[in-house]
Design a protein that fits this description.
alpha/beta; two-stranded antiparallel ribbon; 9 helices
């Protein structure tokens, strides 16, 4: 358990002092009663009969102040919560060729529009992440149920440099692994990581709680081999839905003074999809519902930070109420 305001815990130390002061006042009162002679014996008998109730009232009130002092420190605990969840990663080719205008207004903007339509149809229980790749792959947005965060990440994408489909696929697999891991994304340790065992290959498409949607024109000019990366996805049972952005006729681009012809490589994208038991779609004909058909949500357990202030405050108030009731029933006054 951790505390947002740990300095407030100093107040807990004041509770024993209050308890000792209360005990001394009560002892002084008993001595005065004992000094009253016969009257003191009569009232002393009543005091003895009520002494047990007095101790109970004092214990309840003391416990209440301890619990309330802890509540003021705002305690937090990490709680493992089960929930049904699926993971979808939108993977964008942001290479220079995605600036081509053979689809209006550009391939990049057409890919963004298709992706946003998918996000807007996001069903409950599915988290969506964003990965961008050119000559390297990078997770732009970790999988989340926050549609606004995903849409903002998509809007930030812009074309640059070369193309490595393999890097994009591998970065997406890493994002899925992190999303499905029990270790929080912001977890830090200075201990050396344990060696990661290579998982045994499974049937393509069998891991139906996660899928990758790859937006690209299919042109590849960087390592690693995209089919090797696709095989890694297939071995983990993760489907890749490839979305072709562009036309077979293509477009001529001016890249650093060189005129380069760029066209949609539909065959490469189909090969990646087929190897992973996924499917190929053209961006202008993409139906978001078919993307979510690739997912089957499953039960996962996530560790989430939960503030326990309200729980401690409620327990403290109940204890205080109990002590007050016992004291009023015993002597007709507050403790």
């Amino acid at each position: 358990m951790t505390f947002l305001w740990p300095v407030v815990l100093i107040g807990v130390a004041l509770v024993p002092a209050w308890f000792v002061a209360t005990w001394r006042i009560d002892a002084r009162r008993r001595r005065r009663i004992a000094g009253l002679g016969g009257l003191g014996r009569e009232t002393g008998g009543s005091a003895r009969r009520g002494s047990s109730a007095a101790r109970v009232a004092t214990l309840l009130v003391t416990s209440a102040f301890v619990v309330l002092a802890v509540a003021l420190a705002r305690p937090q605990a990490t709680v493992s919560l089960p929930r049904v969840e699926g993971t979808l990663v939108l993977t964008f080719d942001v290479s220079a060729s995605m600036a081509a205008d053979d689809v209006a207004p550009t391939r990049m903007e057409a890919a963004k529009a298709a992706a946003k339509a998918i996000v807007e149809r996001q069903p409950p229980g599915v988290v969506v992440g964003v990965v961008a790749f050119s000559d390297a792959g990078l997770a732009v947005q970790t999988p989340t149920s926050d549609q606004a965060a995903v849409l903002a990440a998509i809007d930030r994408l812009a074309p640059s440099r070369g193309t490595s489909l393999g890097q994009g696929i591998l970065a997406s697999l890493g994002t899925i692994a992190q999303a499905e891991s029990d270790t929080p994304a912001n977890y830090y340790s200075n201990r050396s990581a344990e060696p990661t065992a290579t998982p045994a290959p499974v049937a393509p498409g069998s891991h139906d709680a996660a899928a990758i949607v790859l937006f690209s024109d299919g042109e590849n000019n960087e390592r690693p081999d995209p089919m090797g990366a696709a095989q890694a996805a297939a071995d983990r049972g993760i489907r890749i839905v490839t979305v072709g952005v562009g036309t077979a006729a293509g477009s001529t681009l001016d890249l650093d003074g060189f005129r380069v012809q760029s066209a949609l490589d539909e065959a490469a994208l189909r090969a990646v999809a087929d190897l992973t038991a996924g499917r190929y779609e053209a961006a202008d004909a993409l139906d978001p519902a078919t993307v979510y058909d690739q997912l089957s949500e499953h039960l996962v357990v996530r560790g989430e930070a939960l503030e326990l202030t309200a729980v401690f405050a409620a327990v403290g108030l109940l204890l205080l109420l109990g002590g007050t009731i016992v004291s009023l029933a015993r002597s007709g006054r507050l403790p």
